Amino acid sequence: MRSDGQRRATIKDVAEAAEVGVATVSRVLSGTGSASPATREKVLAAAARLDYRPSALGRNLRRQRTGGIGLLVPDITDIFYGRLADGVLACAQSAGEPVMIGTTGDDPEREAELIGTLIEESVERVIAVPSGDGEMWGPAFRAGLGVVFAERPVPGRENVPAVVTDDRTGVRTAVEYLAGLGHRRIAFLARHGQAQRVRAFREALAALGVPVDEELIVHAHATRDSAYAAAAGLLQHRSDLTAVLAGGNVLGEAAVLAARELDFRVPRDVSLIMFDDVPWAELCHPPLTVISQPAQDMGYRAAELVLREGRRSRTVTLPTELIVRGSCGPRR
Amino acid sequence: MRSDGQRRATIKDVAEAAEVGVATVSRVLSGTGSASPATREKVLAAAARLDYRPSALGRNLRRQRTGGIGLLVPDITDIFYGRLADGVLACAQSAGEPVMIGTTGDDPEREAELIGTLIEESVERVIAVPSGDGEMWGPAFRAGLGVVFAERPVPGRENVPAVVTDDRTGVRTAVEYLAGLGHRRIAFLARHGQAQRVRAFREALAALGVPVDEELIVHAHATRDSAYAAAAGLLQHRSDLTAVLAGGNVLGEAAVLAARELDFRVPRDVSLIMFDDVPWAELCHPPLTVISQPAQDMGYRAAELVLREGRRSRTVTLPTELIVRGSCGPRR
DNA sequence: ACTCCTCATGGAAACGATTCCATCATAGAT
DNA sequence: ATCTATGATGGAATCGTTTCCATGAGGAGT
Description:
The structure is a homodimer. Mean pLDDT of chain A is about 90; it is low at about 1-5. In chain A, strands 2-1-3-4-5-11 form a 6-stranded parallel β-sheet, with helices on both faces. Chain A has 3 domains: about 10-55, lambda repressor-like DNA-binding domains (434 Repressor (Amino-terminal Domain), Orthogonal Bundle); about 70-165 and about 295-320, Response regulator (Rossmann fold, 3-Layer(aba) Sandwich); about 165-295, Response regulator (Rossmann fold, 3-Layer(aba) Sandwich), CATH 3.40.50. Chain A is α/β, with parallel strands linked by helices. The first copy, chain A, has helices at about 10-20, 20-30, 35-50, 55-65, 80-95, 110-120, 140, 165-180, 195-205, 225-235, 250-260, 280-285, 295-305, and strands at about 70-75, 100-105, 125-130, 145-150, 160-165, 185-190, 215-220, 245, 270-275, 290, 315-320, 320-325. The first copy, chain A, is about 45% helix and about 15% strand. Chains A and B meet through helix 4, helix 5, strand 2, helix 6 and helix 11 of A and helix 4, helix 5, strand 2, helix 6 and helix 11 of B. Strand 2 of chain A pairs antiparallel with strand 2 of chain B. Chain A binds a DNA duplex through helix 1, helix 2 and helix 4.
């Protein structure tokens, strides 16, 4: 008996042990085709005895399809993407599909590299939060990958299925809520790549007859440092603002921190509202009013979409919800 | 030209296009062996023209090694594991290794399933935060996987390399700090699987001559609900306690929430300290005093360890750091 | 009893890459 | 001029699986 630890048993070993051909073993184990009960038994017994597991490598090579899905997110440390990933994993694992993950850091170049790796690995389905303008996706489509975008659509690729949040309604809800409290000087703290939300922000202000001050729209990169710098700059240089809308939890965190550091009292001196409902929003002082986004659902739906590649599927838009806590007050 | 979109180019296509044999193409592209400059050029040009990418499937099947590392964490939504995963990804991506991720939910059964999947996929290196007692790892070792445990060691498997935090020192630091403030009735809010920290807790108390009250040691599962229930139960039923040490950020969050809900003022009524330095610890009111753990380093080191499988490596223990903020005060 | 059909079965090809090995050409040495 | 050493090159085997196809056996229908 040399089955203990040296080499993984192959289908050939099972065939020998069961005294049948490899084709029969394959048929029995995959459930396709016919086999007599006696043979069936023998094969199953041999497979169990040898602790046999079919090699996905061999199978995939033969079948010319890998199964398995790739997942590309900017930053797994951002809880929003953590929850998105969790949703993807929940769906993928219940379907028995392995998931290959990569973090792009919102850098199109790293994204391109990761796409390349996925293609080499013959992964044929990808869920991605695209970086930059999403200009790196040519090779992926040329290679025939099934792609679903999450969180953000890509400007040039409207025909690619995507699962996004209803940015327009979300932003409008936030802006109307703030305007209802009397705020006019509302700042938007955005991440690069949130062009859609910025547009919605302008529209929402315009619809309310509030003039848009471009200097109140500030962009930051996805890092905590950049977010803090942007938030602090905003509060210092545009001190006539009375409310800040943060485009994501990292930006919101930075805003809270900057406000505290610069001695702005929330909500007395400045009202604060952010995208993403995160656990610490309740723990904050004061508790943060947020526009919640269904991050986990988003991941789950994206995974569903990418797994049923059959039907042509359009973009799915998920609703947001305003959760009022204590960080917004009337304009002073 | 049919190279546009239908089928991925194979090495054979490149060989034909360059008018050489497949062996030559392989040699040129992988850099092994010799080839004349002219041939070299022809092959490179053909490969570029056809947008050729070698299939990892074919290569791995032939080479009998997959490369790529598996990563098993309890919950990617927990920022501690998010940072751990980030560290793993940082190392793996810089080494060009794909990463397959799975979440176990701290459930040994799901863990076993995921291990099975990894074996089928011929992944040969795994970094895992083991669930339960880690009794499901037999098949993995039998299959010859290179395993590195992270965060927690597994009782029966001391010879498996692991990257863990210095629980003993971390806990002792926290307990000594609290004792220095006059606290005697110190509770420990632990997750299942933190046996090591519980042991350290008992030892630290004993070393200070403080009697150990077993009822002040409470266990919760890894979910937010379970953590909240445990924290609330602790505060309600053992109201003579004056300080709580939480074994992780989810537990700490639950403690803050429960304290607020039950009208315990922090730190006046109860002092609070938790493992994990997370961004919201500063945002909390009052800011939380924490024992920080180098989660990202942990992941990075684990990845390094699992990639240099060559040398036999022992367990790596990473230091913790006490970060004093405002959630601990003198005993009333 | 002969034919036909179905079912069980195993051999062999294919998937895409690497790598061993044999072949061939050319340059250098005698 | 002949022999040898070296480098370039391609054919073919191999990895583990699935699947096509051929074969053989056995039962049913005439």
